[in-house]
Amino acid sequence: MSTNGHLFPSPEVDSPASLIQSKPYYETPWGAAFVGDSLELLRGVPDDSINLVVTSPPYALHFKKEYGNANQQDYVEWLLPFAAEIRRVLADDGSFVLNVGGAWTPGSPTRSIYTYKLLIALVEEIGLHLAQEFFWYNPAKMPVPAEWVTVRRIRVKDSVEFVWWFGKTPWPKASNRNVLRPYSADMKRLNRKGIKPTVRPGGHVINKGFSSTKAGGSIPPNVIDDDTPTDLLKFGNNAANDKYTQRCKAAGIKIHPARFPAVMPEFFIKLLTEESDIVLDPFAGSNTTGMVAEALERRWLAMDLSEDYIEASKFRFDELTNDSPSL
Predict the structure, then answer these.
(1) What is the pLDDT of residues 133-143, one digit of tens each?
(2) Distances (CA, A) of 235 to 136, 255, 297
(3) Element spanning 95, H or E
């Protein structure tokens, strides 16, 4: 551990807090968290200054959550101003990763199409470029709506959410070498045996490059799940007994009810950024994104309207530093 208490060597880095003309709620060696309307805070961020925005806004559910969420009819109109500011602040090779959950049509066993309307609007109205769509597989999701899934039994449980990767241009910075998975036993066997060049029935040409071990691992699929490799699992557990939850309970502070797993920002931060790049989350909640960015030695900015959630998010950094984040 270095003398500044950080788990990782922490060189002198410019504080990203200077990009925002407001006093941060707290700062760490690599980042700063702000309480306030994130749309107004975003408007104060300079053009082309952010390398990656990764976030999960409140979903357009057909029932209201305590942390606030727009309904399906208003969701696209509500989110587009944020997206316009995000595009403006991104560097030309920057990325915007957006996690949105699907929803059911109120009173009907049919799916809402608001997510597809949002995707089209982000591309056609805001001018973002869809680099690739990903899916977060979450088998622990509840079997809802109960009326259709567990009572009438006419639908199945929904277990995936959309994760869209957008670029400000068609060429965002990325390297899949940073997120390779260990080779499977079958792939290791084929590497030892060697693959004869051939043409598959579907027309794919298989050559010696498919059996090369020089890449160091297999290219991951576009599904984020429990099998996605992570270096930060001990920091990213969202279970009922994780350190964040324990500290919130001990301090009598409200626990954020909709936390995404650390593997989500970890995967995209590794894929889309380099050390000391700046990562921003405008709907930070419990600030999983900031915590992961800090551990990976990226500078970060977090914004949230709720002081309670930002106050509790300081506990995220207990495992990274000896001291609590400074006020």
Answers:
(1) 999 998 888 89
(2) 19, 16, 14
(3) strand 90-100
What is the per-residue pLDDT across 230-286, written as a single tens digit (0 to 9) for each? 876 544 445 555 677 666 666 677 766 566 788 999 999 999 999 999 999 999 999
Q: What is the residue-averaged pLDDT of the chain?
A: 83
Please tell me the distance from the alpha carbon of residue 245 to that of residue 254, in angstroms, as a whole number.
9
Contact 80, 87 (CB under 8 A): no
What are the Cα distances from residue 81, in Å, to 4, 39, 49, 85, 86? 39, 8, 18, 6, 9
Domain segments of the chain as ranges: 16-181+219-317, 182-218
Looking at 118-127, 178-187, 193-202, which range is the least confident one?
193-202
Neighbours of 298 (CB within 10 A): 26
Which class in CATH covers the domain with range 16-181+219-317?
A: alpha beta
Strand partners, 63: none
